[in-house]
């Protein structure tokens, strides 16, 4: 495991686990979104994990460095995480060249044995660089902007054996498959019973604080469902559309008529406000 005192992501999540609150792990696709997320964290005195997709690293090569600068200069705990890194060579390039705190080594598109083998090797390489490692046990169905679409692959629920196998592979953060999915559930969120909270509770008990739990697939979540996930042990809360849809909607409504500088300024305010709202919901506000 990446040593907690030397790794920002692990430090943030250990504090959340001890305090029984959730931490937003928020995707940013550009500098404006990054700025709004950091401003929200400062305003709410809340930790936050900034997440970038591997595709964004290629599209905007300087964004990771901007995010790392924000992490270093913030007066609240921030970290930089690369989400759903699915290419072994790119993962090695990332950990060798970029100032990241943690990486999701996502080998879930391989069969279980190959997933574990590749994860174990890459976890060791990341830890040698002081970088924490997240992995997906089982397989979470679906796709979203920035990650490979696994919609054609069968979703695989996380089993007790998966939990032990991935902990043995040396990971720091486990992203279980409990009926959650990447992409949209619909305007009402997950259907009743779609998320298997009994499975999440059992996984949390089995882990017994050996690793930390990440929740993927939060699009369309109502606040009460997010709180229930936190209560059952999920503390790293991956959010994409859940926050960014207000930004997207603002741009759709105003891009044709509003001057560019004002559009950017007002858009960041809208996203900051939504991020602050979810920090309150997840009870991370005031914890920094």
Automatic annotation (TrEMBL):
A single MF term (Gene Ontology): zinc ion binding
GO biological process, one term: glycolytic process
Keywords: Glycolysis, Lyase, Metal-binding, Zinc
Its EC number(s): 4.1.2.13
Pathway noted in the entry: Carbohydrate degradation; glycolysis; D-glyceraldehyde 3-phosphate and glycerone phosphate from D-glucose: step 4/4
Record-listed Zn(2+) 2 binding positions: 106, 136
Required cofactor names: Zn(2+)
Catalytic residues (UniProt): 83 (proton donor)
Pfam families for this protein: F_bP_aldolase
Transmembrane parts of this sequence: none
Coiled coil residues, start to end: none
Leading EC class: lyase
Protein residues bound to Zn(2+) 1: 84, 182, 216
CC cofactor note: Binds 2 Zn(2+) ions per subunit. One is catalytic and the other provides a structural contribution.
Reaction catalyzed: beta-D-fructose 1,6-bisphosphate = D-glyceraldehyde 3-phosphate + dihydroxyacetone phosphate
InterPro entries in the cross-refs: Aldolase_TIM, Class_II_FBP_aldolase, FBA_II
Function: Catalyzes the aldol condensation of dihydroxyacetone phosphate (DHAP or glycerone-phosphate) with glyceraldehyde 3-phosphate (G3P) to form fructose 1,6-bisphosphate (FBP) in gluconeogenesis and the reverse reaction in glycolysis.
Family: Belongs to the class II fructose-bisphosphate aldolase family.
PANTHER family: D-TAGATOSE-1,6-BISPHOSPHATE ALDOLASE, D-TAGATOSE-1,6-BISPHOSPHATE ALDOLASE SUBUNIT GATY-RELATED
Protein name: Fructose-bisphosphate aldolase
């Amino acid at each position: 495991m990446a040593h907690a005192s030397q790794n920002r992501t692990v430090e943030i999540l250990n504090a959340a686990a001890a305090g029984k609150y959730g931490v937003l792990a928020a995707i940013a696709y550009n500098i404006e979104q990054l700025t709004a997320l950091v401003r929200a964290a400062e305003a709410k005195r809340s930790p936050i994990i900034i997440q970038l997709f591997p595709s964004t690293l290629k599209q905007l090569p300087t964004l990771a460095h901007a995010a790392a600068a924000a992490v270093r200069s913030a007066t609240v705990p921030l970290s930089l995480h690369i989400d759903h890194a699915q290419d072994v060579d790119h993962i090695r390039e990332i950990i060798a060249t970029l100032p990241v705190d943690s990486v999701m080594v996502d080998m879930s598109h391989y069969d279980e044995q190959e997933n574990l083998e590749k994860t174990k090797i890459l976890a060791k390489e990341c830890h040698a660089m002081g970088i924490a490692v997240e992995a997906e046990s089982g397989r979470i169905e679906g796709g979203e902007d920035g990650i490979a679409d696994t919609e054609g692959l069968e979703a695989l629920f996380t089993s007790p054996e998966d939990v032990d196998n991935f902990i043995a592979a040396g990971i720091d953060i486990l992203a279980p498959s409990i009926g959650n999915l990447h992409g949209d559930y619909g305007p009402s969120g997950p259907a009743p019973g779609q998320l298997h909270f009994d499975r999440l509770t059992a996984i949390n008990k089995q882990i017994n604080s050996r690793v930390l739990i990440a929740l993927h697939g939060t699009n369309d979540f109502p606040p009460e469902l997010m709180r229930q996930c936190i209560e059952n042990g999920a503390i790293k809360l991956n959010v994409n559309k859940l926050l960014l849809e207000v930004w997207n909607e603002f741009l759709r409504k105003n891009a044709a008529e509003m001057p560019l500088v004002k559009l950017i300024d007002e858009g960041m305010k809208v996203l900051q406000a939504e991020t602050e709202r979810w920090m309150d919901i997840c009870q991370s506000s005031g914890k920094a």
